[in-house]
Every structure is written in structure tokens, then in C-alpha cells.
């Protein structure tokens, strides 16, 4: 725990601060006398980002400086999104050092100016520790910090805003203006419209009120015009209406009716794709809608009772409805167009730390921030994989002690930022400074669970997630109590002290009641228990610096910045990923977490290699060699043959929710075949399990979005079928025979005791052309079949079938003889055919192609164990001439095959040739259609990140970052 100490007051202090005290900052990662920048290897890279649709350059900056361990994607996104200054000007940032210094030094100065540190030495440790953690991708602040802190523009640090609107025209017009200012600054906002009179109530003049739905039209048009941050993506906003509002049915139906309009216009020939010329004629498309339900309503749904809709000014019931029917209408609308989501009002306010000031009525657009009206929250997220440790014996542990220390550091920095931050409106600034809401969270949970051998939908996985969340929030509030002793509690604390302490007790009780499962989560629960004990003790004595501490945000762009495999609380998208390469291009890889999971589950290196190879070919673990069926669930993902069930997502949210100040940004994805009844069950169980908010998305439920490739193919086929028949020209491949003299490699091998010889002959300048296989027992059935098989393969090669196609089809084929081989590069083989094509891949395929298939040499596997990468270091010498002599067609084989047999390449090309993101790769690998929009900035298909969409190509998001 960080100590507080007496010392001379420095600089100006916030209201209620206690003079003469400061924090002693503890070193976590840094070394005295050594700057964090001096401990890493820096390199220069060129960032050139293109639009894959037309090849145009979206962004270019050459010679940027980053640590050598940062991925291509992280470098591209940070350079294009966060470096400040005009590109090409001397003021343009060109190094990660400049970016981190700009932010960290501002935070240090803010801490010194407002009396946070006991001494200049503590301030320096704070600066170095913060820089080290950012440099090594241990955590990241939200995007507005990187955009604004340390620049000449307003230093807005918050990404999440909640507004308010009253039942007056002045207030409604203020709403439009305030929302527009927030969108202009690149952030999102939410608000509750329930104070506005319904269309069933009278105005003072005697006429009928317009109702909130009509005013939503104006706000939607404004958001669509302003966009967000002056960019081309849509604004991010949330609109909430209470379930007892008389216009609630009209609110529920707004987007359903617009979807019907989209269908009608599309069928009439209008361009209704997302971003199309005619989509702007459709209303209500710039907001997420949510209905705020209370316990009274949900109990009426449960019992089949009636529920009263109340007048806004008097509170009297003006209409009675069947609760089940209204609930059904919500589910039907969500089934049709994904809106509205649901927010559970009584649960939200049961965990409210400041109820004496006002109720929580709304959330930010992604639903994780829930607090007072006219307030904001700045976010930061920790990369959980950075705290997973392996000892010499291969045992795993989550480093709870170091995790807690980093949480203390980050919470301190986040609170300091409120001291110097600017806000879009005066009302938001006043509320935020008075309540100092923070939103620490994490990313990479899905990767952590898989790497530790836990299924996402399992008791063990939920226990570990709950323990980490509890430790994070408990540590945050403990540090908040320590800060209160140094610089005073938040201004609104005195009025809300009893309620705040009651909520802290609720968190502590939930922690005590939580179920411990195994050796990984139990130590984390123990650390969390100690943290909550300190919270109750220190908070009772000092109060708290912050009314809110934690949320689980989408971690979209910053998740890519930290090279996270998974965002927020989400599971992994799929087992096969899309990776950009330093020299340009990309390749398909199996998730790095898969081998760690298999090792945790007790599999041997040879078994791990075979399973990874199977995943590379099939995209899933079903029927993977040596993998036990009871372990399949560990590798379940958001997409694919073994996709996690919708209720599995809900149960994971419920495991984390009791240990969060705010809520969770997450959409529960449901298959296209999901029923309205299943959506009702999800919404009802969310209430029963104590969630604060929930949204669902049924695949292919929306029309106004780009067609997936599969849909376009179907449409093209239908159009072709309707067209008049044309003359068909049939193209046939031509056999290219080998010359009389040809280079070749003869390999002797033993597989499971069966001996044989393989001769692989090449074209002089164009790669493998024939294979001869001879088994030791001439005349046997096996020898005869090998002769026939080798002839068939040779003829196929000469007709242009790519070798990689044979490799992908025949590796992992299982039959006897099988077992150990005498080849150091292929120690185990499932069959002779499996061995033959692994050997051919190693001899004739380029590294990128066979690595995508999971085939590596012994040297490459050794390098991976030592460095985490199969690829040779850039300074490692490579015998280019030798490689060219031993496999002269390696680089040209795919090109030649494409020229000779274009129709075969179209059918057999690896997924990585067609994909531009992991979503597209998963679609190709798994035969699915991800129902996601294309990125407006670069044209690649986006993927889900909480309630928003994230572009892996350029880091753009469809919501708050």
C-alpha cells in the first residue's frame, strides 16, 4: 500500500484538500537512475496505410520511432490516430517517446501543482512508472487523453458523457447544442428523455405535447450532420426512456418502423447500405436506444400482471398496459433491429454512491458509465495478459500484487487529470470536478481465460474474472481513500457519505460470498478481500476522493494500441487471426494463447504442434489430434462452429457486475435463428442475475449496412440466373511436363517403424513438379498405393495445383503406420502421408505460407520458445543463395499456379489472401458472415468491441473510444 506523509504544501489545491500531506510513490517496474526509454530497443519504421478497396493511401508517415516489440498494427494506429501536428511539418510528433512524454509530463505537473506527491523524488518515480507501463503496453488511457493532453487545444480527458433534458423548449434546445459540442470533440453522450411530457398529455396552452419521440428526430438529424469529431463516422449517442413513460411503445417501435422503410426503399432500387447516398433519409440511426425498466415492471412481467404508465408532471397513472405484452414488444423490436436495449433502474440505483444528489437516469452510448446527469468519466484499461506469469516448472499465476500496484498508479493519474481537464460544457465540468468519476477497467480477459485453460462459459472462468474485477475495484477505492487523506474527498461526499459507505459494504459482501474455484483465482480473491477490508477502514476514516472508480469499457482503439487479442470483457473472436507483417502484407496465424492453454492443460509439445496445425487448417478444435473432447470448451469463441452461447455471455457479465462501480459495455450476439422468446429470456435473466444493462444483436437483423460477401455472391447468382443465356467459354488447365534433366531431393524416412524413400523433383526455375514414394517392402499393398498416390500428386502438380493445397488437405490425415519419425523437424506423424507433406512443405513452401499452416522446423520452434516468434531476427544472417538452390520456386510458386489455374486459386486460395481483418478471416475460415459494417475510413470490415464496432485496420470506432 502506498504511504501518505506530511510535507510542505506545494501549488494550488482542490477544494477540501488537506495541506501538508503527499503520496509516497513505490517503484513497480523501473530502476533507480535508469530512464524507462533506455531499457528498450528502438527502431524506425514507415507507416503507410492504404484503402484496400482502391489502393489509395489514407495515411503516410515515414521514419517513426517505436520499441522493436510493438506490432505493425499498434504502430500504425498510434501514428495515425494519436501523433499530433500536421504531417510533414516540424511540429509533427514522430516518436512514441514524444507522445508518452507529452501526456506523462502533463500528469506529473498536475500532480505537483495540486499537492499529490510527498517530494520531487516521488513525482519523478510517478512519471517513470507511468511511462514504463505505457511503453510496455501494460495499460492505456482512453483516446481523448492521447488526442488532447499536453496540446494547445482544450485538454478534454473524458470519453463518456451523460446529459440531461427537462420538459421545456429551452432545455431541449440546450440538449441539441450540448450534444453537438460533445460530438464535435470526438466523444459520445447519453441522456434520458423521460422528463419530457408524452404525446398523450396536454400543454399549458391546451394543445397536445409533441412527446420525446418527435424531439428525437431533431437530435438525430443534428448528430447525423455534425458526425463525430468532424470525421465521417456516425456520432455515438444513447437515448433512454423509462418504461412507465406513456410514449414507451412509440419509442420501442421507432427503429423497427425505420428498418421496414429501409427494406421498402432498398427493394425500390435506392442505395440503403450504411454510408449509401439514400440512407440519410432514414431517421433514428445515430443513436442506441434503451428502455429503463424497474423492479415493479419486471415483477409484473414475471407474474403476468398489469403495469401503469404515468404522466410526467403529476405522476398519476394515465394508462394501464399488460406488462408481458410490453416486454414482448421490446423483445420483438430487438429481434428485428437490435434496439432497444434494456437498463435495470433499481439495480443501477441500488449501487449508486451519490443518491442524495440525484438518481442515475442514463448512461453513456456504450452503457458502461452510469452516474449523475451532466457528468463525465475518463477511462483507462489494463492489459490483463501482462500480469500472467509462468514459473520455471511451467506453473501459471496471476500476479495480483503487481496488478494492484499498477491499479494504484493508474487511479492516481486518472484523478490528477480531473484537476487540469477541460470539459465541453460548464455544467459537466462542475459535476465532474465535484464527484470526480473515474472508469478504470481492463482488456484481454478472453485471452487470459483461454491462456489459463479456462472456458469463457465456465465456473472457473467466471471465478477468475470476478476475482480480478473485485481486486481492481477494491484497490481503486482503497487508493481513493488514501487520496482523500492527501487532497480531500470529493465535494459531494459529505452529503452522500452514508450511501457511499453502504455501497462499499455491498461490494465487500459480494467479494466475501463469491465462490473460489482453483489455484489461479483463490490468491486473487484473497488479495481482493484484503483490499476491501482496507476500503472499509480507510474510507470510514478519510472518505473517498472519487464517487466512481471502475467500469468495463469497449477498449476499442486502445486495445489495438496495447496489442490485445480481445477487447474489454469479450471472448476471443476466433482461433485464427490476421496479422500484419513488418515488410508489408499479412499472414494468417493461430492465436498465441492457444499453445499456452494447451500447455496449461498438460499437452506435450508434439501434441500442441499437431493441434495448432489442425486449427490452422480447420479454424476450430473439433477432431483435433490428441485433444480431449472435454477440453474443447476452453477454445470456444464468439464466432465459429463452437460459438459461446448467448447465456454464456450474460453469465460472464453477471460474474463481474457486483465488483464494478459502473456497468459493462457488451452486446450479447445471437445467431440469426434466435427467437423472440430467447431474447425475452436473455433480458429477463439479465435482471435476475443483477446486471445493470444489456443489449443483444441478432445476426443479419439489420438491412442498412454493407452486404457481406456471401450475400453479394447470392445476389449476383440470382441476377445471372435471370439474365439471358450467353455463350460459355470453358477454360482448362494445361499440363506442364518436367524436362529430362531436373533437380531433385531424395529423403529417407521412418514413420512408426515403416521405412521409405521420397524423391521430390523440381522444374529448373519453377518449383516442385513430381514426387516418387518407395516403401521398403516392394510389392506390398502399401507400396503399391504409395506408387499410385505419388503419380496422382505429380500429375496434379504439373497441371498447376498449388503444393500448399495438397499440404493443407493431407497433413493431419491419420492411419497406420503412425508415430515417431527419424526427422528432427517432424518428430511425430499421424501417418506416412502426414509426414510426406509436412516434409515437402518445409522443403518447398515459403515461411509465411507454411507458418500459416502451422508447420515449422525444429530451429523455428526453438526460436519461438526463446523469443516468442518463429521468424528470424532482422539481423540474423540468411543464406539466400542456398535457399534459392534448394527450393528455387519458393517465392514464385503461388504466382505460377495462379497463372496456370486461376479457377483453382479462386477455390483453394488461403483465407489470408482475401481477408483484410480478423473478422473477414474468420468468415472465410469458418464459413460465416459477420454482420458488421465496413469502416468509413479504410473500408475494412469492423468487429464488435462492447456495444460499438472497431476497425482493426486503422483503429476507428463507431462509438466512444
Automatic annotation (TrEMBL):
The lineage of its organism: Bacteria, Bacillati, Actinomycetota, Actinomycetes, Kitasatosporales. It catalyses: a 2'-deoxyribonucleoside 5'-diphosphate + [thioredoxin]-disulfide + H2O = a ribonucleoside 5'-diphosphate + [thioredoxin]-dithiol. Its cofactor is adenosylcob(III)alamin. Keywords: Cobalamin, Cobalt, Disulfide bond, DNA synthesis, Nucleotide-binding, Oxidoreductase. This is Vitamin B12-dependent ribonucleotide reductase. Pfam families: Ribonuc_red_2_N (PF08471), Ribonuc_red_lgC (PF02867), TSCPD (PF12637). The keyword Nucleotide-binding applies. It comes from Streptomyces thermolineatus. Residues 158-697 form the Ribonucleotide reductase large subunit C-terminal domain. Residues 742-842 form the TSCPD domain. Belongs to the ribonucleoside diphosphate reductase class-2 family. Residues 47-137 form the Ribonucleotide reductase class II vitamin B12-dependent N-terminal domain. Residues 1-24, 861-916 are annotated as: Disordered.
Amino acid at each position: 500500500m502506498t504511504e501518505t506523509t506530511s510535507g510542505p504544501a506545494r501549488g494550488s489545491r482542490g477544494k477540501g484538500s488537506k495541506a501538508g500531506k503527499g503520496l509516497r510513490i513505490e517503484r513497480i517496474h523501473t530502476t533507480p537512475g535508469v530512464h524507462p526509454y533506455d531499457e528498450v530497443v528502438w527502431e524506425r519504421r514507415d507507416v503507410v496505410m492504404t484503402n484496400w478497396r482502391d489502393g489509395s493511401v489514407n495515411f503516410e508517415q515515414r521514419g517513426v520511432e517505436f520499441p522493436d516489440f510493438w506490432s505493425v498494427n499498434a504502430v500504425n494506429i498510434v501514428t495515425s490516430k494519436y501523433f499530433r501536428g500536421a504531417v510533414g511539418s516540424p511540429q509533427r510528433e514522430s516518436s512514441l517517446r514524444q507522445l508518452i512524454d507529452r501526456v506523462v509530463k502533463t500528469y506529473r505537473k498536475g500532480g505537483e501543482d495540486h499537492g499529490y506527491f510527498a517530494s520531487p523524488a516521488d513525482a519523478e518515480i510517478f512519471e517513470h512508472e507511468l511511462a514504463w507501463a505505457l511503453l510496455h503496453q501494460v495499460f492505456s488511457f482512453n483516446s481523448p487523453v492521447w488526442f488532447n493532453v499536453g496540446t494547445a487545444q482544450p485538454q478534454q480527458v473524458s470519453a463518456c458523457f451523460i446529459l440531461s433534458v427537462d420538459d421545456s423548449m429551452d432545455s431541449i434546445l440546450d440538449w441539441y447544442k450540448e450534444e453537438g459540442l460533445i460530438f464535435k470533440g470526438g466523444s459520445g453522450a447519453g441522456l434520458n428523455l423521460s422528463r419530457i411530457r408524452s404525446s398523450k398529455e396536454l400543454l399549458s396552452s391546451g394543445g397536445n405535447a409533441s412527446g420525446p419521440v418527435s424531439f428525437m428526430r431533431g437530435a438525430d438529424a443534428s448528430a447525423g450532420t455534425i458526425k463525430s469529431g468532424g470525421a465521417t463516422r456516425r456520432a455515438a449517442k444513447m437515448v433512454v426512456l423509462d418504461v412507465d413513460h406513456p410514449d414507451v411503445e412509440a419509442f420501442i417501435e421507432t427503429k423497427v418502423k425505420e428498418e421496414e422503410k429501409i427494406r421498402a426503399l432498398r427493394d425500390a432500387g435506392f442505395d440503403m447500405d450504411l454510408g449509401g447516398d439514400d440512407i440519410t433519409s432514414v431517421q433514428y440511426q445515430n443513436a442506441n436506444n434503451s428502455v429503463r425498466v424497474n423492479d415493479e415492471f419486471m415483477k409484473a412481467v414475471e407474474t403476468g400482471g398489469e403495469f401503469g404508465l404515468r404522466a410526467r408532471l403529476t405522476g398519476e397513472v394515465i394508462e394501464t398496459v399488460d406488462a408481458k405484452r410490453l416486454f414482448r414488444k421490446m423483445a420483438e423490436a430487438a429481434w428485428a433491429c437490435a434496439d432497444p436495449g434494456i437498463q435495470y433502474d433499481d439495480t443501477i440505483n441500488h449501487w449508486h454512491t451519490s443518491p442524495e444528489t440525484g438518481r442515475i437516469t442514463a448512461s453513456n452510448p456504450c452503457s458502461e458509465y452510469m452516474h449523475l446527469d451532466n457528468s463525465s468519466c475518463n477511462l483507462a484499461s489494463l492489459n490483463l495478459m501482462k500480469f500472467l506469469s509462468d514459473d520455471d516448472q511451467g506453473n501459471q499465476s496471476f500476479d495480483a500484487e503487481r496488478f494492484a500496484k499498477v491499479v494504484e498508479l493508474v487511479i492516481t493519474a486518472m484523478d490528477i487529470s480531473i484537476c487540469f481537464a477541460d470539459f465541453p460544457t460548464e455544467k459537466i465540468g462542475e459535476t465532474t470536478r465535484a464527484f470526480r468519476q473515474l472508469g478504470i477497467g481492463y482488456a484481454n480477459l478472453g485471452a487470459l481465460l483461454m491462456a489459463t485453460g479456462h472456458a469463457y462459459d465456465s465456473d472457473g472462468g467466471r471465478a477468475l474474472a470476478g476475482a480480478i474485477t473485485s481486486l481492481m475495484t477494491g484497490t481503486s477505492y482503497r487508493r481513493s481513500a488514501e487520496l482523500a487523506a492527501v487532497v480531500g474527498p470529493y465535494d459531494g461526499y459529505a452529503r452522500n457519505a452514508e450511501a457511499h459507505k453502504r455501497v462499499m459494504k455491498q461490494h465487500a459482501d459480494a467479494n466475501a460470498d463469491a465462490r473460489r474455484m482453483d489455484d489461479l483465482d483463490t490468491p486473487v480473491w484473497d488479495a481482493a478481500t484484503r483490499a476491501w477490508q482496507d476500503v472499509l477502514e480507510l474510507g470510514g476514516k478519510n472518505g473517498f476522493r472519487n464517487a466512481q472508480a471502475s467500469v468495463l469499457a469497449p477498449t476499442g482503439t486502445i486495445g489495438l494500441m496495447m496489442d490485445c487479442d480481445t477487447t474489454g470483457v469479450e471472448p476471443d473472436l476466433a482461433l485464427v487471426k490476421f496479422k500484419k507483417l513488418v515488410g508489408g502484407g499479412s499472414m494468417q496465424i493461430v492465436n498465441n494463447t492457444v499453445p499456452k492453454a494447451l500447455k496449461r492443460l498438460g499437452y506435450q509439445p508434439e501434441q500442441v504442434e499437431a493441434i495448432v496445425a489442425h486449427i490452422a487448417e480447420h479454424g476450430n478444435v473439433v477432431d483435433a489430434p490428441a485433444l480431449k473432447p472435454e477440453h474443447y470448451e476452453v477454445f470456444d469463441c464468439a464466432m465459429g462452429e463452437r460459438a459461446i452461447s448467448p447465456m454464456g455471455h450474460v453469465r460472464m457479465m453477471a460474474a463481474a457486475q457486483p465488483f464494478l462501480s459502473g456497468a459493462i459495455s457488451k452486446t450479447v450476439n445471437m445467431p440469426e435463428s434466435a427467437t423472440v422468446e430467447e431474447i425475452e429470456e436473455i433480458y429477463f435473466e439479465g435482471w435476475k442475475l443483477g446486471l445493470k444493462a444489456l443489449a443483444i444483436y441478432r445476426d443479419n437483423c439489420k438491412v442498412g449496412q454493407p452486404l457481406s460477401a456471401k450475400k453479394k455472391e447470392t445476389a449476383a447468382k440470382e441476377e445471372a440466373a435471370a439474365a439471358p443465356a450467353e455463350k460459355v467459354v470453358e477454360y482448362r488447365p494445361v499440363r506442364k511436363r518436367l524436362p529430362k534433366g531436373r533437380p531433385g531431393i531424395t529423403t529417407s524416412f521412418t514413420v512408426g517403424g515403416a521405412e521409405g524413400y521420397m524423391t521430390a523433383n523440381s522444374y529448373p526455375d519453377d518449383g516442385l513438379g513430381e514426387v516418387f514414394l518407395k516403401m521398403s517392402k516392394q510389392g506390398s499393398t502399401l507400396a503399391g498405393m504409395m506408387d499410385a498416390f505419388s503419380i496422382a500428386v505429380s500429375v496434379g502438380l504439373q497441371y498447376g495445383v498449388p503444393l500448399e493445397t495438397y499440404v493443407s488437405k493431407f497433413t493431419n490425415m491419420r492411419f497406420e503406420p503412425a508415430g515417431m519419425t527419424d526427422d528432427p523437424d517432424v518428430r511425430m506423424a499421424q501417418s506416412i502421408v502426414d509426414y510426406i507433406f509436412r516434409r515437402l512443405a518445409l522443403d518447398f513452401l515459403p515461411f509465411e505460407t507454411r507458418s500459416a499452416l502451422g508447420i515449422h522446423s525444429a530451429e523455428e520452434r526453438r526460436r519461438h520458445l526463446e523469443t516468442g516468434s518463429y521468424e528470424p531476427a532482422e539481423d540474423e544472417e540468411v543464406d539466400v543463395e542456398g535457399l534459392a538452390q534448394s527450393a528455387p520456386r519458393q517465392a514464385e510458386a503461388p504466382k505460377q499456379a495462379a497463372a496456370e489455374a486461376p479457377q483453382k486459386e479462386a477455390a483453394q486460395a488461403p483465407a489470408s489472401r482475401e481477408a483484410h481483418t480478423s473478422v473477414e478471416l474468420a468468415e472465410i475460415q469458418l464459413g460465416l458472415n459477420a454482420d458488421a459494417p465496413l469502416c468509413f475510413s479504410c473500408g475494412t470490415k469492423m468487429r464488435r468491441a462492447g456495444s460499438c464496432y472497431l476497425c482493426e485496420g486503422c483503429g476507428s470506432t463507431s462509438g466512444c473510444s
